[in-house]
Automatic annotation (TrEMBL):
Organism: Zygosaccharomyces mellis
Gene from which the chain derives: PRI2
Ranges of biased composition (kind: Basic residues): 1-14
GO cellular component: alpha DNA polymerase:primase complex
Keyword Manganese: no
Protein name: DNA primase large subunit
Pfam families: DNA_primase_lrg, DNA_primase_lrg_N
Length: 509
């Protein structure tokens, strides 16, 4: 699978079931045969990922492709957790999908990326039931989203390519024979699900609609709600409802495949390069797509915009995510922060645009403020180097980036007297509830956030807090993607605040 270690790999037993008669997708990297192979798989743009790939990719591709897919899956999960409608989810995820995992494309590399990344993530998420469920749920969402993005011509082509015995369309003659019953059954759905309010529109839609005939027990939930016409033990399902069936089939197959993958996982333990990558990826449901700018100042902050004085202003502090607020409060209470807290807050402030000089001023003032016991001399001796080091001005001269949520969550939990970490993970329910109540959130909003915390979905809880605290005035949030980086929270909050203030000023004129 990997170009870099061909010899080693060819001598190793492949991750396959040699006795099961499993087939593989073979193909020389970049060859005509490989191109033809992927053209065939993606003839109808979508795939059920039936045969594992066994071409060659580099370790970099292995990791980057998997991370990119993970970002898309995370975004989808986050949309569901935040109760976004199908339309809103499409609007939020589509740009990310086009950037990271384009599927409606003729490019061989894109097709391979989609195919391989799915199988790599199978390896990561087959280890426990929780991970398997999570992966199946997210992949099924992705499948549904993509299916809905296809033209009806490609949808039909895809369904036909699956050759599922249960998905056979009835003939025109059979449709005419039951046309009255079929129309009466689906007319309410056309009106309320597809918004075809006009009778003429509904009839025209019906004329072009295809029907699938299948044993009624395959769609028992639709039978219960009288959404399908029944005849002699068969249900007649309109094509616009077929996605339910397809996605169920997709999930069942993937569940089975993940179990099979899990059973064969021990073979993979021979590979000391892959295990760390896979372990790292399977904990990656907090991966952030936030790009920090190379000058290390948030895109919305000019150098000088944030300084050691105005960082204390109510306006700026209101843009902080809870983790940064907590660190700030801790610093003000104790006039000191221990190592992890210092690093987390220092990198965050650097990321929002506090320059090195301003940062030194800020930390010196905070540590030596009235009420504390530190002298300027001690600060200069013991801490000055640390803060200069964070800006790449000392030692190895690496200019460090702000920690994303994943890094923050990977650090040891805060002990007594420490303030680093993520409050959605580290605070008890009472403390978190009273903090959320102070943000004027409703009981329903608070419950939903606490529920996410219970499920260990801390970044989803944080994104919900952002939406609930920034949507209160009815002004729309432009970017509704998932937040998995404190600096993204800050940047988005600040943009929203500026827009909000601008709108209020314009209205006052
Ligand atoms: S989810 Fe991330 S940004 Fe939000 S509080 Fe936790 S660490 Fe901070």
């Amino acid at each position: 699978m990997f170009r870099q270690n061909k010899k080693r790999i060819s001598s190793r037993r492949h991750f396959s079931n040699e006795n099961s008669g499993s087939q593989f997708i073979m193909g020389q990297r970049g060859s005509e045969a490989e191109k033809r192979l992927y053209d065939k798989i993606y003839e109808s743009k979508l795939s059920f990922y039936e045969l594992p790939p066994q071409g060659e990719i580099t370790l970099d591709q292995f990791e980057i492709w998997a991370i990119d897919r993970l970002k898309v899956l995370l975004e989808l999960e986050s949309c569901v957790a935040r109760n976004k409608t199908a339309k809103e989810t499409e609007t939020i995820v589509k740009p990310l999908l086009q950037k990271l995992l384009p599927f409606n494309t003729d490019n061989l590399e894109d097709k391979k990326k989609d195919y391989y990344s799915h199988f790599i993530l199978r390896l990561c998420f087959c280890r426990t039931k929780d991970l398997r469920d999570k992966f199946v749920r997210a992949e099924t969402l992705l499948f549904k989203l993509r299916f809905n993005m296809l033209t009806s011509q490609y949808q039909t082509k895809f369904v036909q390519s699956l050759d599922l015995p249960m998905l056979q369309f009835i003939s025109e003659e059979e449709k005419i024979e039951f046309s009255q019953e079929l129309y009466q059954t689906i007319a309410p759905q056309l009106q309320f699900q597809l918004n075809l309010t006009d009778e003429m529109q509904r009839k025209q839609y019906f004329q072009n609609e295809k029907f699938i005939k299948l044993p009624f027990e395959s769609v028992i939930d639709l039978v219960g709600s009288r959404q399908v016409f029944l005849k002699k033990g068969f249900a007649y399902l309109p094509q616009f409802q077929q996605l339910n069936l397809l996605s169920r089939e997709f999930s069942h197959r993937l569940e089975d495949e993940l179990m099979r993958t899990f059973q064969h996982l021990p073979h993979l333990n021979e590979d000391d390069r892959l295990i760390p990558i896979l372990t790292h990826l399977s904990t990656g449901y907090t991966i952030s797509d936030y790009q920090q700018y190379s000058h290390d100042f948030g895109s919305d902050s000019q150098e000088g915009d944030i300084n050691s004085q105005n960082v204390y202003s109510k306006e700026i502090l209101s843009n902080f995510p809870l983790c940064a607020k907590n660190l700030f409060n801790g610093l003000q209470q104790q006039h000191h922060l221990r190592y992890n807290g210092r690093q987390q807050l220092s990198f965050f402030l650097k990321g929002i645009g506090l320059s090195a000089d301003e940062a030194l001023r800020f930390w010196a003032e905070a540590f030596t403020a009235k009420g504390g016991s530190m002298t300027m001399d001690k600060f200069n001796k013991e801490y000055r180097y640390n803060f200069r080091h964070n800006y790449g001005l000392e030692g190895s001269r690496i200019s460090y980036r702000a920690w994303d949520c994943r890094t923050i969550l990977s650090k040891p939990r805060p002990a007594r007297g420490e303030f680093h970490g993520c409050p959605y993970r580290d605070w008890n329910v009472d403390k978190l509830t009273s903090e959320l109540a102070a943000m004027n959130l409703t009981a329903v909003q608070m419950n939903s956030i606490l529920e996410s915390c219970q499920k260990n979905e801390f970044t989803i809880a944080c994104t919900k807090v952002f939406e609930n605290t920034h949507g209160q005035t009815g002004m729309e949030i432009d970017d509704q993607t998932h937040i998995a980086h404190p600096n993204l929270y800050f940047e988005r909050s600040r943009q929203w605040q500026k827009k909000h203030n601008g709108d209020s000023a314009a209205q006052a004129k």
